[in-house]
Amino acid sequence: MADTWLIVGLGNPGPRYELTRHNIGQMVMDELAGRRREAFRAHKANARVVETWLRPGAAKLVLAKLNSFMNVSGGPVAGLARFYGIEADHVIVVHDELDIPYDTIKLKTGGGHGGHNGVRDIAKALGTADFPRVRVGIGRPVGRQDPADWVLDPFSATERRTLPILVSDAADAVELLADEGLVSAQQRFHAPRA
């Protein structure tokens, strides 16, 4: 169905990971659900979902937070896509991105996974990498810290000051992508900030 979008915010389950960099995708889902005053409900595809609308009369949105760990995101995403009859080109994946500076949002469809195991697993499960992505920059660690540890750390105090704005901007990017398409969203979010 061209008028229904599955929007998946990647992250890890449980309070230990809730406020970590790796969970920014789930933070964006909370923002989108909060804007609509909706609560997530359990789904048989090992996920929690909100079924809502972009706005009255516009596209239907299925917001999803997975109960699985990041590296095995593919099964639940493929299960949700099958359940709702949504093709890969209408599955928007929102995830953290090491290779983009903090406080930056980039959008793309297809391409490689850039070492992101959640994106890799989703591409494998869907049988294609041609799904749209909202990539939320978390930057790379300074010094010798292992990136695998960095993504599982909470945001720094400095980052937390602007984190609500970043999450809100990423939610705006999702809405614009579903409403007007990739090019329009890229033109807005890839432009240098004034």
UniProtKB/TrEMBL annotation:
- Which residues constitute the catalytic centre? H22 (proton acceptor)
Any one biological process term the GO annotation gives: rescue of stalled ribosome
UniProt site (Discriminates between blocked and unblocked aminoacyl-tRNA): N12
Q: Tell me which residues bind tRNA.
A: Y17, F69, N71, N117
Give the record's keywords alphabetically.
Cytoplasm, Hydrolase, RNA-binding, tRNA-binding
Q: Which Gene3D superfamilies match?
A: Peptidyl-tRNA hydrolase
Listed under GO cellular component are: cytoplasm
- Record function comment: Hydrolyzes ribosome-free peptidyl-tRNAs (with 1 or more amino acids incorporated), which drop off the ribosome during protein synthesis, or as a result of ribosome stalling. Catalyzes the release of premature peptidyl moieties from peptidyl-tRNA molecules trapped in stalled 50S ribosomal subunits, and thus maintains levels of free tRNAs and 50S ribosomes.
Under which name does UniProt file this protein?
Peptidyl-tRNA hydrolase
**UniProt organism field:** Microbacterium proteolyticum
Q: By which gene is this protein encoded?
A: pth
